Amino acid sequence: MTTPSTDNYMLGKGILKFDRFDADGNSTGLRDLGNVPAFTLQPAIESLDHYSSRAGLKVKDKTVTVQAGLTAKFTIEEYDKETLALALLGTVAGRVINLMKESKIEGALYFYGDPATGIRYNARLWKVTLKPTSEVGFIGDDWGKIDFEGEVGKDETGHPTNPTGELEEILES
């Protein structure tokens, strides 16, 4: 698409899947996370400024980036046992969720875009450490939801040319 164009406006929808890694870092299989009403990616940049002390008024003379990262945030609405295990750092054994059995949850995160309008994108993040960021409510007057934040790491062994992940425009056929 060219810019400017109203075809570029986004009313995003899509499917989010997670491939939880086992204790050895191996894939356990891609799993649909159900209805996910929110999914965002946010770069995080930290800079260090330098100021000249050659005159009475300090003037910024250089800025360097000292840290860069990417964060994925999403909300899940379906309370199945695998989702609850993610939210409560647990493991699943049959019909039981063993709470707080894991110190961290790591895996790959895949988004398959299917917007109501706008350009369709798919995202693949090779290594994400998930952190639940909301309470898991069991009584309430509104639909239940569970919020997550994921710190995106690098997989230089499995994806040496693009270790963080990728966002791909999907052309309609």
Description of the molecule:
It is a single chain. The protein is mainly β and 173 residues long. It has one domain. The protein contains 1 helix and 10 strands. The strands form 2 sheets. Strands 1, 2, 3, 4, 7, 8, 9 and 10 form an 8-stranded antiparallel sheet that branches. Strands 5-6 form a two-stranded antiparallel sheet. A hairpin with a 5-residue loop joins strand 1 (14-21) and strand 2 (27-32). The mean pLDDT is 95.
Please name the defining characteristics of this protein.
single chain, 173 residues, mainly beta, 1 helix, 10 strands
Topology at a glance:
Blueprint (H helix, E strand, L loop, with lengths): L13 E8 L5 E6 L5 E15 L6 E18 L4 H7 L3 E3 L2 E3 L6 E9 L6 E13 L13 E7 L12 E6 L3
Antiparallel strand pairs: 1-2, 1-7, 3-4, 4-9, 5-6, 7-8, 8-9, 8-10
Outline:
The protein is mainly β and 173 residues long. It has 1 helix and 10 strands, in the order ββββαββββββ. Strands 1, 2, 3, 4, 7, 8, 9 and 10 form an 8-stranded antiparallel sheet that branches.
Q: Average pLDDT value? A: 95
SS field, number of helical segments: 1
The percent range for helix content is under 10%
- The N- and C-terminal alpha carbons lie at a distance of 15 Å
Would you tell me the structural class of the helices and strands? Answer: mainly beta
User: How many domains make up the coordinates?
Assistant: 1
Strand content: over 45%
| Radius of gyration from the alpha-carbon trace, in angstroms | 20 Å
Low-confidence stretches: none
Summarize the biggest pleated sheet: 8 strands, antiparallel
Q: Count the strands?
A: 10
> Looking at the structure, what is the overall shape?
globular
Sketch the topology as an H/E string, one letter per element.
EEEEHEEEEEE
